[in-house]
Each structure stands twice: as structure tokens, then as C-alpha cells.
Amino acid sequence: MKIGIDITMLVYAGSGVANYTFNLVKTLLEIDKKNEYRLFYSSFRRPKNFYYLDQLKKLGGKIYDFPFPPSLLKIIWGKFNIIPIELFTGKVDVFFFSDFLRPPLLKGTKGLTTVHDLTWKLFPEYHTKDVIEAHQKKLEKTIEFGDTIIVDSENTKNDLLKLYPQTKPNKINVIYPGIGNEFKPNDNKQKLTDILKKYNTIATNHYSLATNHYLLYVGAIEPRKNLTLATEIFSQLIKTTNDNLPTTTLQFIIVGRAGWKNEDVFRSIKQLGLEDRVIFTGFVEDEDLPYLYRGARLTVYLSSYEGFGLPPIESLACGTPVIAGDNSSMRETIDKKFLVDVTDKNKILEKMKYLLSNKTNTNSNEIQERFDWRVSARKFLKIINDL
């Protein structure tokens, strides 16, 4: 069988959707030597250390790399729905999408798409107009063309059926994303120190950053993630006196690229006088991320809503506890003891103090077994074979 996959989302290296796309395709290529994979990629730019295409090519994927500007693809596929994507990859049996666009296909080709979440529909105030329009058009086409749909959680499936009741329930398949084998406990403090230096996370003032002396956030810097709230709670936390907490040296490392509508985050940090206590690393290479999780005292993920949410799972697998929003899919994937009502600042602060002061079992082995990319890939292949 010839399987086409749009991997253009890899241009957003460091984002959740890029992580999903790369790891699912990589695992498919590793475990499936029977089918042929044709991978369409289009972008003018390459992020720093962009190794993704080379890795997928080495695993046997056929790369179709084009320098089309995103604006052009939005016009021909998003607005006018012309020019089948297979004119660039050749005819395939199935084409899989996880991008903003759902291009037309040649006659007889079956469509398969992932809907990660519907936050753009539920919380439009968190998104820009063009993002909302792109998702809306893609989902309408997905339903109109009768594509098979993959969702990351039961929560997203329920959202989809509620907001788009015309969707056929038998067309929706739940497949949890996985995490890599590298996300596991490891007490290599020297390696962590080297990585902290690599990303300039050593403070510029008298505070000294060391293992277990920082909180960690991983993800996009955008409103839904509630980073302004997180920094406000952090400001309160470091003012408390507790023999079990290194509040005088504790810092907050934020890993991820700036998304949209993020001005309030930077404004809040400045107003709270946290410029020397909150450190932005920008994009962190995949191989370095597990060490940052392991060295953290707590991973903070106070998102208002998630279709899945990989960072909390990755952190727990590395043995580091999490404080996450008690909402959406996180109720489905994370133990209740790590969840908190993100609308109650007092509860967040108290839960944070408790998790920082008490050793809490993260059930690392269970997490690794439950969220395994090989399991995800096998379920994906079963769906393909049943089409």
C-alpha cells in the first residue's frame, strides 16, 4: 500500500503538533517495512538544527520537499480547493493530514486526518482569526469528504460530536499519542549541568541555578497555557518561608517558542520583577529535553484546555511531578493527585507547595507503557488496513 503523509507541520519544530507528526511517522517507518510512505513537506525556511527530514529519509520515507510559500498553499488548497496534493507525490492509496489544510485528492484516494483539539472553536479568544478560519475550513472539508478521523483523546471525540453532530461516530478513532523511550528517570547531574549552561539558564544575578532548584514549563507561549497565571503564582511562592523549599534560589524555566497573543506574559514578568527568576530558553533540542524534565523540581502546566497535552506525560515518565489543570483531556490522562482547579489561585499555590515539599510517586513505568508510540503506530496501521 502507498501511504501519503503531509509532514509540513515539522516546520514548527518544538510544538506539540510537530512532535506528534515526527514521532508518529518515525515510528511507522521503524515498525512497518511493508507499506511505502510518501512524505510531502513544504516550507521556505528550516528551523535551526532541522534534522527531521534526514532522519525520516534514512528510515525509508520518500521525501517530496517543495519550497512553496504557506500563503500560496492557503490559496490553492484552503480557499479554492484545487490541485490535488498527489500531483506532487504521485498517486497513493491513503493520504494522512495533521496540518491546517486538507488538500484535494485524486479519485479513489482515501483521506485520513487528525483533529488534535477544538480549542479554536471552544475558546476563539485564544486564537488569531486566520488560525480559526484555517481549522474551520479544514474540518468542514474533512467531514464533507467523509475522511476517517483520528483524535488524541475521548474528550476531543466528545467535543467533535457535540460541536459537529453531522460527524459519523464510526468515522472517529481515538489514538493516544506516545512518548519516546528517552523520557525516563536518569540521575546524570553533570549532563544536566552542561545542558543548563547550553541554554544560558544560569542566572545573571547572585542566584545560582542547580538541580531541583527550578520549576519547568514546556510548550507554546500562548494565552490558553495560562503562563501569566503561572508566573503570578510563582511570584507568591518565592515569597513564602519554608524550610523544605529553596525559595531564595528557586527559578522558573520556560521552554518553548513564542506563539500568539503572548504579550501579557512578558508584561507580567516585568511588573512582578521576575526578570532574573524566570528564564526563557526558546526551542530546546529533543535530546536535551528529558534532562530538563529530570532536573526540575516540578513541571507546571496550568492550561485551560488540552486535546491531550504531552509535556505533563513526559515529565511524569521522567520521574518529575506535575501540577496541571483539572480539565479537558488531562482528567483522562493524568492522576487526580496532580490536577488543580486553574480558576482558584489559592488552591494552585497550596497544591504547588505540597508537591514541592512532599515526594510523590509519578508511576513512571506505567506512564511509559500506557503512552507508547509503537502502540499508537500499530493502531494507526489497523485503521489504514480497515479502510
Q: What does this molecule look like?
A:
- It comes from Candidatus Roizmanbacteria bacterium CG07_land_8_20_14_0_80_34_15.
- It holds the Pfam family Glycos_transf_1.
- Residues 212-361 form the Glycosyl transferase family domain.
- This is Glycosyltransferase family 1 protein.
- With 387 residues, the protein is an alpha/beta fold.
- The protein has 2 domains: 2-178 and 372-386, 3-Layer(aba) Sandwich (Rossmann fold), CATH 3.40.50.2000; 189-369, Glycogen Phosphorylase B (Rossmann fold, 3-Layer(aba) Sandwich).
- The chain has 16 helices and 13 strands.
- It has helices spanning 16-31, 52-58, 70-79, 86-89, 119-122, 129-144, 154-163, 189-198, 227-237, 263-271, 289-295, 310-317, 330-333, 345-357, 364-370, 373-386; strands spanning 2-6, 36-42, 62-66, 94-97, 110-115, 148-151, 172-174, 214-218, 251-255, 278-282, 298-301, 322-325, 339-340.
- The strands form 2 sheets. The chain has a 7-stranded parallel beta sheet. A 6-stranded parallel beta sheet has the order 10-9-8-11-12-13, with helices on both faces.
- Helix 2 (52-58) links the parallel strand 2 and strand 3.
- Helix 1 crosses helix 16 (373-386).
- It starts with a strand and ends with a helix.
